[in-house]
Amino acid sequence: MKYDLTRFAINQITTPKWSMPEAIEGYSRNGIKGIAVWRNFLDDYGVEKTSKHLKDAGMWVASLCTSAWVNETEAAAYKAQIDANRRIIDQAAAIGAPCVVMVMGGLPKGDKDLAAQRVRIHDALAELAPYAIASGVKLGLEPLHPMYCGDRSAMNSITDVKGLIDELGDDATSLVADVYHCWWDPAFERELRHAGKDRIQTFHYCDWLVPTRNLRDRGMVGDGVIDFARIRGWLDEIGYEGPFELEIFSELNWWERDPEETVRIAIERCGPFVGPLKK
User: Fold this and answer.
1) Given CB 3.0 to 4.6 Å as the disulfide criterion, which of 52, 146, 215, 243 pairs with 62?
2) Residue 70 carries which DSSP code?
3) How far apart are CA 223 and CA 207, in angstroms?
4) What is the C-alpha separation between 5 and 30, in angstroms, rounded?
5) How many helices (H) and strands (E) does the chain have?
6) Considering its fold, how many domains does the chain have in total?
7) Backbone angles phi, psi at 76, to 5 degrees
């Protein structure tokens, strides 16, 4: 069966064996014109080369992943990370990415003050908001599963993220919703409906495996316990018309496979949940 893949993008972290040019050509070769760019691949290939290659291949960009962390307790180091995020916003604008996915860091090394880190995240977003508006690039706020709170991000609740968007405004911020991080949350459906179609920037797919063997052991759609049909139904009822990204961290499986195989299976598994059958 052939599905409409118009809204489907693959996040580059799903196929880390491919360089930027290999990913652009590989996704495009399989009929996928959407890509979520990961910064290390962008830095390796260069912004100008990436921008030109994307245009030549007729690709569109769902997002740029990810921001610089702001889990710094020293004022100078914190400011350096704010400046780094401004440069990342510039990169996003240059390649046509509508948002930077904001993953802001967990607890600083040797620190246990979680409330203080959440204040840093709030203040950093508030400081970056005017720059994002001027650049035409939104700060894509992604709540991460609480198991990442200690190291990767202390922005964990979709309800809290929704509050940040309310405070900072739709011109500067939007919601990046990932089923892996939010499927378990009783507030997931309610907050998606409250956000509405215009506040959801992009929507991430992958599956929650049982058992999950480590923090980088996500599943391909259909291999775990997430009810994708139900969640896609919510989004259709909301009227969401944005992208669907496949984003898989998988040290024990998908990262070891041939990326061509991963892309082929991704189309088979994600097709029913990204677009209708082609007539």
Assistant:
1) 243
2) -
3) 6
4) 10
5) 10, 8
6) 1
7) -65, -40
Mean pLDDT value of segment 243-258: 98
Asked whether 257 and 233 are in contact (CB, 8 A), the reply is: no
In a domain, 2, yes or no: no
Domain of 134, CATH number, reads: 3.20.20.150
The answer to whether residue 1 is domain-embedded is no
Residue 279 in any domain: the answer is no
CA dist., res. 42 & res. 30, Å (int): 21
Contacts of 142 (CB under 8 A, 6+ apart): 101, 102, 103, 153, 155, 161, 175, 176, 177, 178, 181, 204
What is the value of pTM for the model shown?
0.97
Structure tokens at 175: 């919601």
Range of the domain at 53: 8-274
The pLDDT of 226-239, averaged and rounded, is: 97
- The position carrying tokens 């198991």 is 147
Q: Is the dihedral of CA 68, 65, 109, 158 positive or negative?
A: positive
Q: Name every residue whose Cβ is closer than 8 Å to that of residue 96 and which is 6 or more positions away in sequence.
A: 51, 54, 60, 61
pLDDT tens figures, 10-67 = 999 999 999 999 999 999 999 999 999 999 999 999 999 999 999 999 999 999 999 9
Segment 154-195, tens digit of pLDDT: 999 999 999 999 999 999 999 999 999 999 999 999 999 999
- Provide CB contacts within 8 A for 65, sequence distance 6+: 11, 12, 13, 36, 37, 38, 39, 100, 101, 103, 247
Tell me how crowded residue 125 is: count the other CB atoms within 10 A of its CB: 24
d(CA 85, CA 3): 37
Q: What angle do CA 270, 96, 169 make, to 5 degrees?
A: 90
* CA gap 76, 251 in Å, rounded: 35
